[in-house]
UniProtKB/TrEMBL annotation:
<feature type="domain" description="RING-type">
    <location>
        <begin position="73"/>
        <end position="115"/>
    </location>
</feature>
<dbReference type="InterPro" id="IPR001841">
    <property type="entry name" value="Znf_RING"/>
</dbReference>
<dbReference type="GO" id="GO:0008270">
    <property type="term" value="F:zinc ion binding"/>
</dbReference>
<protein>
    <recommendedName>
        <fullName>RING-type domain-containing protein</fullName>
    </recommendedName>
</protein>
<dbReference type="Pfam" id="PF13639">
    <property type="entry name" value="zf-RING_2"/>
</dbReference>
<dbReference type="InterPro" id="IPR013083">
    <property type="entry name" value="Znf_RING/FYVE/PHD"/>
</dbReference>
<keyword id="KW-0479">Metal-binding</keyword>
<dbReference type="GO" id="GO:0006511">
    <property type="term" value="P:ubiquitin-dependent protein catabolic process"/>
</dbReference>
<keyword id="KW-0862">Zinc</keyword>
<dbReference type="GO" id="GO:0061630">
    <property type="term" value="F:ubiquitin protein ligase activity"/>
</dbReference>
<keyword id="KW-0863">Zinc-finger</keyword>
<dbReference type="InterPro" id="IPR051826">
    <property type="entry name" value="E3_ubiquitin-ligase_domain"/>
</dbReference>
Length: 127
């Protein structure tokens, strides 16, 4: 049986199994199409024309908050500034830049951290 070429970047194996080849995973490469960074440390939508039009008003209805103990937005990995007015608290309590969470919710319907489903439909108690 011929041996497969070995490259330490691609070979993974359990102690009791044969090596398995997997390509390396680059999170920056995966996230690059959804968010880009400006020199001002703000996150922005890269393709705002492709966003679902209903998410922006919905996200802007989330409470604007001082991020407090939150060090960074986990969507763009950029820090919050104390005077940052675009921090939005989503229903699960996590805080993100408004543009970042709008972009995220246009692609996925859940919180990036806890995966709580976020819906455009509001409950009767919401205004």
């Amino acid at each position: 049986m011929a041996a497969l070429p070995s490259d330490s970047r691609f070979t993974y194996a359990a102690a009791d199994s044969a090596p398995v080849s997997r390509p390396p995973f680059d999170l920056d490469e995966v996230l690059a199409p959804t968010v880009h960074y400006s020199s001002g440390s703000q996150c922005h939508e890269e393709a705002s024309l492709r966003l679902q039009p209903d998410w922006r008003p919905f996200v802007l209805a989330f409470p604007a908050v001082d991020p407090g103990g939150a060090n960074q937005c986990t969507v763009c990995m950029e820090g919050f500034r104390s005077s940052d007015e675009c921090g939005r608290r989503i229903p699960c309590g996590h805080v993100y830049h408004a543009d970042c969470i709008t972009t995220w919710l246009s692609l996925y319907d859940s919180c990036p951290l806890c995966r709580l489903k976020v819906s455009l439909e509001r409950t009767n108690g919401d205004k």
